[in-house]
Design goal:
The complex is a heterotrimer. By secondary structure, chain B is mostly helical. Helix content of chain B is 75%, strand content 0%. In chain C, helix 4 packs parallel to helix 7 and helix 12 runs antiparallel to helix 13. Classes of the chains: A alpha/beta, B mainly alpha, C mainly alpha. Chains A and B meet through helix 3, helix 4 and helix 7 of A and helix 7 and helix 8 of B.
């Protein structure tokens, strides 16, 4: 079923905004990578970021949980409001608990499956019934049935697709309001990709998602809104169905019809 | 191309290549020679007394090296306590926090310290721990060995920490872990196997050192309670007994040599095999 | 499959508002940075202190003898007259002779391991040679006393005298201990370092070099000796310097077989003394502050020698890693 068709025009206007980005500029040293970006990311929806390699979509995604700060000599200006609070003024550790991330290549810790999922809970000081939460997260990531008897096994015993779902479970365990996905399926096979897209659909109700993807079909399938970026600038942003069928900007059209990319 | 010249070149080729093979095998056979001799001479002299008895008075036959065995263990313990934490934490600094110039200076100085002859380290430890109190002690020996442990531990800790991929760190930080939390709960555990092996190797290295102990821990023909008295150690005993004129002492020196070499080689063998198996950093 | 989110009871809620110093302190990152930095700085402290102590404690001797210390050859504890010349001589002679023995041997073995042996065999042998490097000095000394010394006295010495006895270095009485014996034992001790570093360096020489030579009709030996080894020569030089630095500082094995005679002699069969050996033997016997100070000054000299050599060695090895020693 096409996700985009489920959203009526009326509900789009009513959708609340989770992230509001105003005039965002980002620099790697002297080189500017994002130029004056303005974007609203709606709550409990999937927003896809598409664009050719090097257009800045991953860089932009990583500003949303300030992961770029781990790289030296980066600079960001502008405002990024998460539910009205500027994340650049916030405690970054607390921010990252609310805004989780799944990376391009699965990066489970060299610990057991259980300990991977429980990690975020433990460091954030959660005291409570870990077992239940671990199970809950694994269910949300559609991995529980496959690993429920092997929780103590090393995460590396899992296949690539399972590891990625484990990373999703790990990110979900701290119950983030937003989940950022940076090309999560690029290293995976089509079957696993479909599984992950399906679980994204189910997660929407409780979690806002932003996914960077170079796979346009995936964006068309799995997202409600799509933003097209080019050379560090936001070119067009609208409902997925509209962007893919009747794009307003000629560059958008050129990209999605494959004239460049 | 004259046939004679060609023949000459080909024979030279054969001869030289054979010689290189001979050289390689000659060097390796030295290892087996050493082991063989020690096992032959030392094995004959190993008995229960060796491990349980104290040395007999000079000139008398018999006795053992129980105090030296315990002494070496005590010294290694001191060296571990003093040197390993410094090495590890400095390694963490270099791998995780280091600024460019300061790290360079630290690494350079570590290499410098590593290259200092062990007898000079002995002089240093002497001036630090023996001169002020005017007597030899186990503690002074521990200081000397502890200093020697540091450079090896720093280098290996740094290496194994660097081998942990950045994606693991990012995964932890994205979950809201602070820098030090990431290091303590993800990076260090992941690198722990290699780091521990490196530590064991550094201890195996100083276990055989004699020179730095000659005027720090000195020696002792009796038990050495506590940490403030001169203490016997296997390497020093081997040295003392080997240069003495008593056959019985020579016999015991072989036995002690066998034990020392056996332990050092076993530790090295075990550690290196473990490192090869894991292929550096992966668990 | 449940899809609703649960709130986590008891989890620490994120803080709103700007971060204060207390917040950052709580994080622990700054603290961790400082603590680890302090430990790293400790190494600098230890090393500086070492140089300082050597300098200060050798003051008496330096003040009394000045630069003449380096070329005075008396070593007289009774009349408090000390000179470093015999020990510098002994250290240099044993180290250089040990290099003369070890370099051809080590280089040949490294060539075999890098060029000729199949990879598995090469790795296994290299592994065993690394074990050889781990054998403690005192064990080499033990074998030196009971195997090499008698051999020198009964077999090697006479053989050398018969063949090369016209050379002054092989004349004079031969009791088994002496410069030559110490050099042989040293050679065995440093050969593993030459082999392991040279082997690694040789393995980095690009295949194309070898192949180009072979394609021109060179024999394997010619390709190796005339093309591969020269390409790696800077790194090999580095390994030799490293081995030399090691040899200079070797104490126990040398002490046990060198004869402990502080004299400068021509013959390699003669007994001699090295800096490390005299410190090892006489430090605890030193009566008087000047005596001790002279020994510590010797330690300072040794430190400087190894410091310079190690520095040179590293420059050479790094240079090979960068450019293969060849301008392209």
């Amino acid at each position: 079923m096409r996700v985009a068709e489920k959203i009526s025009a009326a509900s789009e206007k009513e959708a609340l905004v989770r992230f509001e980005i105003s005039d965002l500029n980002f620099y790697y040293g002297a080189k500017q990578a994002v130029f004056g970006l303005n974007l609203k990311i709606p709550k409990n929806r999937v927003t896809a970021l598409i664009g050719p390699s090097g257009c800045g979509k991953s860089t932009f995604l990583r500003t949303l949980n300030r992961m770029n700060e781990t790289i030296r000599h980066t600079r960001v200006s502008g405002k990024i409001l998460l539910d009205g609070q500027d994340i650049l003024q916030m405690d970054v550790v607390g921010l990252r608990r609310r805004v989780g991330m799944v990376f391009q290549r699965p990066n489970p810790f060299p610990k057991s499956i259980y300990d991977n999922v429980a990690y975020g809970l433990r460091i954030n000081g959660y005291k409570g019934r870990l077992d239940e939460l671990v199970e809950h997260s694994l269910r949300r990531a559609a991995l529980w049935e496959e690993v429920k008897d092997y929780l103590k096994k090393s995460a590396f015993a899992l296949s690539g697709g399972q590891q990625q779902r484990l990373c999703i479970a790990r990110a979900l365990a701290v119950d983030p309001e937003v989940l950022l996905l940076d090309e999560p399926c690029s290293a995976l096979d089509p079957v696993t990709t479909a599984k992950i897209e399906e679980l994204m659909f189910h997660l929407k109700d409780s979690c806002t998602m932003a996914i960077v993807t170079h796979n346009m079909q995936q964006a068309a399938r799995a997202s409600d809104f799509t933003a097209f970026m080019l050379d560090g600038k936001l070119i067009e942003h609208s409902e997925t169905s509209k962007l893919f069928t009747t794009p307003t900007d000629p560059r958008t059209e050129a990209y999605i019809t494959g004239r460049f990319g | 191309m004259s046939r004679v010249r060609l023949l000459w070149r080909k024979s030279l080729n054969a001869v030289m290549l054979t010689l290189t093979g001979v050289a390689a095998f000659a060097v390796v056979s030295v290892l087996f020679l050493i082991l063989g001799y020690l096992i032959w001479n030392g094995g004959r002299s190993l008995n229960w007394d060796f491990f349980t008895q104290l040395p007999k008075p000079v000139g008398e036959e018999g006795g053992g090296m129980a105090n030296a065995i315990v002494g070496s263990l005590k010294l290694l313990f001191l060296a571990a306590v003093m040197g390993l934490p410094v090495g590890l934490i400095a390694g963490v600094y270099l791998a995780e926090f280091g600024g460019k110039t300061f790290s360079f200076v630290v690494r350079y100085t570590t290499d410098l310290l590593n290259g200092v002859p062990s007898i000079v380290i002995g002089i240093f430890a002497y001036s630090l721990a023996v001169l002020p109190v005017k007597h030899f002690s186990a503690l002074a020996g521990g200081v000397a060995l502890g200093i020697m442990v540091i450079p090896i531990t720093v280098r290996s800790s740094e290496e194994f920490l660097r081998a942990i991929p950045g994606s693991l760190r990012e995964g932890a930080m994205a979950l809201g872990a602070s820098r030090w939390r990431t290091i303590a709960t993800v990076v260090l555990p992941a690198a722990s196997g290699g780091i521990l092996t490196g530590m064991l190797l550094s201890l195996a290295r100083v276990a055989g050192e004699t020179a730095p102990l000659l005027f720090t821990a000195f020696s002792n023909r009796f038990w050495s309670p506590g940490w403030g008295q001169p203490i016997a150690s296997l390497p020093v005993m081997i040295y003392t007994y080997a240069i003495a004129p008593y056959d019985d002492w020579h016999r015991q020196a072989w036995a002690a040599g066998l034990i020392l070499l056996g332990l050092v080689l076993l530790a090295n063998l075990g550690c290196r095999l473990a490192l090869r198996g894991r292929g550096m950093g992966r668990s | 499959m449940s899809t609703s989110a649960t709130t986590i009871d008891g989890a620490v809620p994120p803080k709103a508002g700007p971060r204060t110093f207390i917040d950052r302190l709580h994080d622990g990152d700054e603290v961790a940075h400082v603590i680890t930095l302090v430990f790293a700085a400790t190494i600098l402290l230890i090393t500086s202190l070492l140089v300082y102590e050597l300098w200060v404690n050798s003051h008496l001797s330096r003040a009394k003898f000045g630069l003449a210390f380096f070329w005075t050859s008396t070593w007289d504890p009774i009349f408090d007259h000390f000179g470093a010349a015999p020990f510098i001589y002994g250290t240099l002679v044993t180290s250089i002779v040990s290099l003369i023995i070890a370099v051809p041997l080590g280089l040949a073995a490294a060539v075999f391991l890098a060029e000729l042996a199949p990879r598995n065999l090469s790795d296994s042998i290299a592994f065993l040679i690394d074990l050889l490097a781990a054998v403690p000095s005192v064990i080499y000394g033990l074998l030196g006393i009971f195997i090499v010394v008698p051999l020198m006295r009964t077999v090697v010495g006479p053989a050398l005298k018969d063949t090369l006895g016209f050379l002054p270095i092989f004349q004079g009485p031969n009791y088994g201990v002496g410069f030559l014996t110490a050099s042989i034992v040293l050679a065995i001790m440093i050969v593993p370092f030459i082999i392991s570093v040279s082997r690694e360096v040789l393995l980095t020489v690009p295949r194309e070099q070898r192949e180009a030579a072979l394609a021109l009709g060179a024999t394997r030996w010619e390709a190796t000796w005339q093309v591969v080894v020269p390409w790696a020569r800077t790194g090999i030089m580095g390994s030799i310097f490293l081995a030399l630095a090691r040899a200079l500082g070797e104490t126990m094995a040398v002490t046990m077989v060198i004869g402990n005679d502080p004299k400068i002699r021509e013959s390699l069969f003669a007994a001699g003394y090295t800096i490390a050996a005299v410190i090892a033997n006489e430090f605890t016997e030193a009566t008087g502050d000047l005596y001790l100070s002279a020994l510590i000054e010797l330690g300072l000299v040794l430190f400087l020698m190894t410091f310079i050599l190690n520095g040179l060695a590293r420059i050479l090895i790094v240079a090979t890693e960068r450019g293969g020693g060849h301008p392209s």
